[in-house]
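Below is a filled-in request sheet from our internal design queue. Each sheet records the structural input a requester submitted and the sequence that came back. We keep these sheets so that new team members can see what a complete request looks like end to end.

REQUESTER: design group, bay 2
PRIORITY: normal
MODE: inverse folding
CHAIN LENGTH: 176
BACKBONE (tokenized):
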């Protein structure tokens, strides 16, 4: 097998873009992505370095963490073309929007959150909820249910970002 595959080339570009650096003093992206995806670190290393073909299960796990559907991952891995994974029927225009959410009923802004590529469903849901919280504050209305959980989740994410030095400390300060 060649030392590079379509998937390894894509992962080498996508991982740093999503906060999983491969080189430099902040490297460790392979280990962190492996942990987040539930894949052994050695297997992730072989995938990133093009020494093994991915399993469908591993593609699904990596895609879930990076915010891509399995069909996108099959294309990135070179195992299918976009045409092969595209339905011949009318495709769902918003496949990542949970079925209980009606796109037509979403206010401007929230609709776009659900269309952003590269975010997991959970990240989109948190972002949409945070928009509702900010809007309720601006409008002087009662905040939506779940505000405490959303703030806790956001605080956890920001804390992790600070630990990893993803953001400059001058732009993000710990709230105590």
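RETURNED SEQUENCE:
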């Amino acid at each position: 097998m060649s030392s590079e595959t379509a998937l390894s080339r894509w992962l080498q570009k996508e991982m740093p873009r999503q906060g999983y650096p491969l080189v430099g003093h902040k490297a460790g992206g392979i280990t962190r992505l492996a942990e987040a995806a539930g894949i052994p670190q050695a297997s992730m290393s072989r995938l990133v370095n093009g020494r093994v073909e991915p399993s469908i299960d591993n593609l699904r796990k990596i895609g879930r963490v990076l915010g891509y559907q399995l069909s996108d991952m099959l294309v990135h891995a070179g195992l299918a073309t976009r045409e092969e994974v595209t339905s011949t029927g009318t495709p769902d225009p918003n496949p990542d929007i949970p079925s209980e959410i009606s796109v037509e009923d979403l206010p401007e802004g929230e609709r776009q959150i659900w269309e952003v590529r590269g975010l997991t469903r959970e990240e989109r849901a948190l972002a949409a909820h945070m928009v509702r919280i900010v809007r309720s504050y601006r409008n002087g209305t009662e905040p939506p249910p779940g505000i405490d959980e959303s703030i806790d989740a956001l605080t956890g994410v920001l804390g992790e970002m600070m630990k990893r030095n993803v953001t400059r400390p001058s732009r993000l300060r710990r709230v105590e």
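SHEET NOTES:
- The radius of gyration is 19 Å.
- The first helix runs from residue 6 to 17.
FILED BY: M.R.
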